[in-house]
Design a protein that fits this description.
By secondary structure, the protein is mainly alpha-helical. The protein has a single domain (30-330), classed as Orthogonal Bundle (ABC transporter involved in vitamin B12 uptake, BtuC), CATH 1.10.3470. The protein is 75% helix and 1% strand. It has a two-stranded antiparallel ribbon with strand order 1-2. The radius of gyration is 22 Å and the shape is globular.
Length: 331
């Protein structure tokens, strides 16, 4: 009789695949993607109107501003900060760009001015939180009120309309049956994810968010990095405001109310931690997609918009609680 013996190479192969499988399951993106697919299959079997090109196009257009802001927000969260003023910055930026275009300012110049305005608001948030040491919750709530108030004062609460047709081109036209703004959003998400994963500069966010003192001792300019992260987040919020104004052909001072909670919920669902040091752009994007699908399902089921807001809040609390439990078990 001949005994069968296992070789080291034979044992290593299953072990290697088991390790890969554990890493995939351990990331937040894979389980979240599976959950999204389950939701899609469930709703497709329940309502034939869900799995249509028109519905998916509407969802993609609707989540575009939120997903663009989430790119900056997740970088900020990873570095240990957060920003509650992004919805107000979006509304102010959309209002300002509409006002500028209506007063015959060249459209490229108006867009650059508005993005610069967003960067300036982010700079103020960064100074308040890093130099003056105001809690980010208080500082960004303050800038939220200021930005929203300025937008209301500019328009007396009335949307600015009557914009030239050329301004709505980016928000309304399509390429390969996909709106321009969706292509722009996908490009920003892809570039943001690759940059956060692979560029030396943005990977500093993980060191800053994980251990601020160690990062400072290793030569990373912690305060300057956080200020830049606030500027990036507010700048992307301003750009999202331009896209929304182009789509609506109006500057609306009341736009994006509560969007900051959707952005935070999406980022946390996707694996970002409010304590800093964790998160990916892809995870945040999938979190936004998940919230958008849940909202779309509730709309198709004729659930009140007020209940949809309540569900978003419940999702945020559940995601944060889950994150805290995971971190506690890990520690």
């Amino acid at each position: 009789m001949s005994a069968t013996t296992s070789t080291p190479a034979a044992n290593a192969q299953p072990s290697r695949w088991n390790g890969v499988l554990r890493r995939l399951v351990g990331t937040r993106e894979v389980p979240l993607l599976i959950l999204i697919l389950v939701l899609v299959v469930f709703m497709a079997s329940r309502n034939p109107n869900f799995l249509t090109v028109a519905n998916f196009r509407a969802m993609a257009v609707g989540l575009t501003p939120t997903a663009i802001i989430a790119v900056g927000m997740v970088i900020l969260l990873v570095s240990g900060g957060f920003d509650l003023s992004v919805g107000a910055v979006l509304a102010l930026s959309g209002t300002v760009v509409a006002w500028l275009v209506l007063h015959d300012v060249a459209q490229p110049l108006a867009v650059l001015a508005v993005v610069a305005l967003g960067g300036a608001i982010g700079f103020i948030n960064g100074i308040l939180t890093t130099k003056i040491k105001i809690n980010p919750l208080v500082a960004t709530l303050g800038t939220l009120s200021i930005a929203r108030g300025i937008a209301q004062v500019m328009t007396e609460g009335i949307s600015i309309s009557g914009l030239p047709t050329s301004f709505g081109r980016v928000g309304g036209e399509q390429v390969a049956n996909v709106p321009y703004m969706v292509w722009i959003m996908l490009a920003i998400v892809i570039v943001g994810d690759l940059a956060l994963r692979h560029t030396r500069f943005l990977r500093q966010a993980y060191y800053v968010g994980s251990n601020e003192n160690a990062a400072r001792l290793s030569g990373i300019p912690v305060e300057r990095f956080r200020i830049l992260a606030y500027m990036l987040t507010a700048g992307l919020a301003a750009f999202a405001g331009v896209l929304l104004a182009s789509r609506l052909m109006a500057g609306t001072p009341t736009a994006a109310q509560g969007m900051e909670l959707q952005v935070l919920a999406g980022a946390v669902i996707g694996g970002a931690s409010l304590s800093g040091g964790e998160g990916t752009v892809l995870g945040a994007f999938l979190g936004i997609v998940f919230i958008s699908i849940v909202s779309n399902i509730m709309t198709m089921e004729a659930v009140s918009i007020f209940w949809q807001q309540a569900v978003t809040g419940a999702i945020l609390i559940t995601a944060v609680a889950f994150d805290m439990l995971v971190r506690r078990r890990t520690s």
